[in-house]
Every structure is written in structure tokens, then in C-alpha cells.
Write a structure and sequence with these properties.
Layout lengths: L3 H17 L1 H38 L1 E6 L5 H11 L5 E7 L1 H12 L21 E7 L5 H9 L4 E5 L2 H43 L1 H9 L4 H40 L3 H8 L4 H31 L3
Antiparallel strand pairs: 1-3, 1-4, 2-3
GO cellular component, one term: plasma membrane
Protein name: Cell division protein FtsX
Subcellular location: Cell membrane
């Protein structure tokens, strides 16, 4: 069991290594911070794209048309069957009369053109009774349409299949691109840690040989380097987290002050940093410490010949 004095020694040695190689340590921290900022930005971008895509998905309705002579009981039966389809977020029944009223509202001053179609059970009303549905996941829209068409009483289904394909492609591209960037930046971070440990081992080779001669174990000699990697990782994670928080809130403020309706719509669907702060802190802390410790453990075994 490690005594308190030994633990204090390891922390002291790890910190001393960082100070002794401060230029390389500064470069390591700077590079790790830059990598974490890029990784964090990629993650936030991915989260917000998915949020905005989800908003667009909710705005794209699927319309299930039913026959004009459907009875109230038949409409209720269809409604009950729709509740059994998992991919349906919610739905609304729209009668022929409601549909024509909505169209007249859209026409504004020209609404008089549709007055002949008003009235309950008006045989001249060309609009059908329908259910308007919002879909949870557009990537499985095709299978959902098949389930809808199988419901007794639904004559046909109108769905934004092209929009669904585009949105699904965007989601896949953002996910794949984000993962690629994260993997590349992690590899760069490991190389930086490796170079730092290599230089530290080289500079302390005489001291290491003396420690070995007086009976120090390999593990005891390696631990200060692991602590060094831990400290480099945690310092980088804290700095990157703070810079990302400030930068992200600044970007949101700029979006909020933009008069464009389109930009304002994007702003309303962005995720506040506070909502993902704990998750991001865990990713940064775990990633920084993981990269630092793993880089130290792996490369100290490679370069430390004890």
C-alpha cells in the first residue's frame, strides 16, 4: 500500500517534470487544449445539428387520407391503430370542413374564392378527411408508411420522403465526420504526449539509473511520468472546458442579436451550454486524463529502459 509520503513524492515529481520541461509541457498543454476545443466544438456542432434536424423533422407532417364516408366509429378505430405505431410522435384528425377553413385562412383577402366549399357535409368540398402525423425518426419513414398503408380505412399516405432522405444523410454525415475528427485529434494528442515523455526520460536518464541501482522498482520509476501525463491532461481539460464555455456563449449571443428570421430560428433550437455542461466536463476530464495517462503508460514503457 502506498504511503502518503510516497504519493506526495510522485505528485511532486510529476509537477517538477512539467516545470523542468516547461516549454515542451506548454506546447503539450497548448496542443491538447486546441485538440479538445476542436473535439468539443465538433461535439457541440453535432448535438446542435441533430437538434435542428429534429426540429425540421417535427415540422414535416405525414398525411394519411381517409374516405369521405368514414363513420365516427371508423375514424376512432383508425385513431386507436395509429397509437400502436411506435414511430408516430403525435397525430391530429382534420375533417374536410376544418381543412377548407384552414385553406381560407391562408388565402387571406382572397378567401372568398373558397366560400362555395364551406359548410358541413358540403359535397363540393374537394378536400379529404385526414390524419396529420408527426414522425419521431425520418430515417425509418419508409417502414412507417408501410404500416400506415396497412391500417384499415386509410386510403393513401402522403409523406416527405425526399426530405427524410436528405435529413437522414445530414445526420449520418455529421456523425461520421465528427467521429473522424475526434479520432484524428486523439492520435495527434497521443503523439504530443509521447514526445513530452520521451524528452523527460532522456533528460532524467542519469537520475533514473541511480534510482535503479539503489533498488527502486520499475513501477516506482514509471509512476512520476504517469502523474505528469495525468497533470498535463487535467490542466488541458480545465482550460479547454473554460474556453469552450465562454466561446460557445459568445456565439449564441451573436446569433441572438442577428435580425435574420432564419438565424433566429437556428438560435431558438440551439442547446444551451448549461444543459450539456456536466456531460462535456465528464468528456473533457475523462478524455484529457485518459490521453495523458495512456500516453505516459504506453510511451514510458517504450522509451524507459530500466
Amino acid at each position: 500500500m502506498m504511503r502518503g509520503s510516497s504519493f506526495g513524492y510522485l505528485i511532486k515529481e510529476g509537477a517538477k517534470n512539467i516545470y523542468a520541461n516547461r516549454l515542451m509541457s506548454f506546447a503539450s498543454i497548448g496542443t491538447l487544449v486546441a485538440c479538445m476545443l476542436l473535439i468539443g466544438s465538433a461535439l457541440l456542432f453535432s448535438i446542435n445539428v441533430n437538434s435542428f434536424v429534429g426540429y425540421i423533422e417535427e415540422q414535416n407532417e405525414v398525411v394519411a387520407l381517409i374516405s369521405d364516408d368514414a363513420t365516427e366509429q371508423e375514424v376512432e378505430d383508425i385513431s386507436n391503430q395509429l397509437t400502436l405505431i411506435d414511430n408516430i410522435l403525435d397525430f391530429t384528425y382534420v375533417s374536410k370542413e376544418q381543412a377548407i377553413e384552414e385553406q381560407m385562412a391562408l388565402y387571406g383577402e382572397s378567401a372568398f374564392l373558397l366560400e362555395d366549399f364551406e359548410g358541413e357535409n358540403n359535397p363540393e368540398n374537394p378536400l379529404p378527411n385526414s390524419f396529420r402525423l408527426r414522425i419521431k425518426d425520418l430515417s425509418i419513414l419508409s417502414s412507417t408508411i408501410m404500416k400506415l398503408e396497412a391500417v384499415e380505412g386509410i386510403e393513401s399516405v402522403k409523406a416527405p420522403t425526399e426530405v427524410a432522405e436528405i435529413l437522414s444523410s445530414i445526420k449520418r454525415a455529421v456523425y461520421s465526420g465528427g467521429m473522424f475528427i475526434v479520432l484524428i485529434l486523439m492520435a495527434v494528442s497521443l503523439v504530443i504526449i509521447a514526445n513530452t515523455i520521451k524528452i523527460t526520460v532522456f533528460n532524467r536518464r542519469k537520475e533514473i539509473n541511480i534510482m535503479k541501482y539503489v533498488g527502486a522498482t520499475d513501477g516506482f520509476i514509471r509512476l512520476p511520468f504517469i502523474v505528469e501525463g495525468f497533470l498535463l491532461g487535467i490542466i488541458s481539460a480545465v482550460l479547454a472546458f473554460g474556453v469552450l464555455w465562454v466561446g460557445y456563449n459568445y456565439v449564441l449571443q451573436v446569433l441572438a442579436e442577428n435580425p435574420s428570421a432564419w438565424i433566429n430560428q437556428i438560435y431558438q433550437n440551439t442547446i444551451p451550454f448549461q444543459k450539456v455542461a456536466l456531460q462535456m466536463a465528464a468528456w473533457f476530464g475523462g478524455g484529457g486524463i485518459g490521453i495523458g495517462v495512456f500516453g505516459s503508460m504506453f510511451f514510458v514503457n517504450k522509451y524507459l529502459k530500466v
